[in-house]
Amino acid sequence: MEKDGLERDSREKETKLLSLTRQLEELQDRLTESERLRTQQQRELDDLMSSQDDAGKNVSFTTFPQGAAKKLVKISLPFASSVQ
């Protein structure tokens, strides 16, 4: 009887370990993708900030496209909520 309980406990722990390992891999994949997107968007932002308007002045944050800002927020929010 005690042997059965130990085997059951061992199986439960192994199942939990496998589940946590899968979750870790999924989170690492999501983190890698988020970092890739962040790097890409940082390059886009740097390009926008370094570009110049018709008068030869640097583009300011007031001219930063709202669509790009919303995209940054959308990408950041799902990842932040899953890490809690």
Would you write up a description of this structure?
α1 packs antiparallel against α2. The two termini are 40 Å apart. The model has no long low-confidence stretch (mean pLDDT 80). This protein has one domain. It has helices at 2-50, 66-83. It is 80% helix and 0% strand. The longest helix has 49 residues, at 2-50.
Estimated helix fraction: over 70%
Give the overall average pLDDT.
80
Oligomeric category? single chain
| SSE class | mainly alpha
The number of helical elements comes to: 2
Strand percent estimate: under 5%
Low-confidence sequence ranges: none
Give a short account of the largest sheet.
none
Number of domains: 1
Order of helices and strands: HH
Distance N to C terminus: 40 Å
Tell me the Rg in angstroms.
23 Å
- What is the molecular shape? rod-shaped
List keywords for this structure.
80% helix; 84 residues; mainly alpha; 0% strand
Topology:
Elements lengths: L1 H49 L15 H18 L1
Short account of what is shown:
With 84 residues, this protein is an all-alpha fold. The chain has helices spanning 2-50, 66-83.
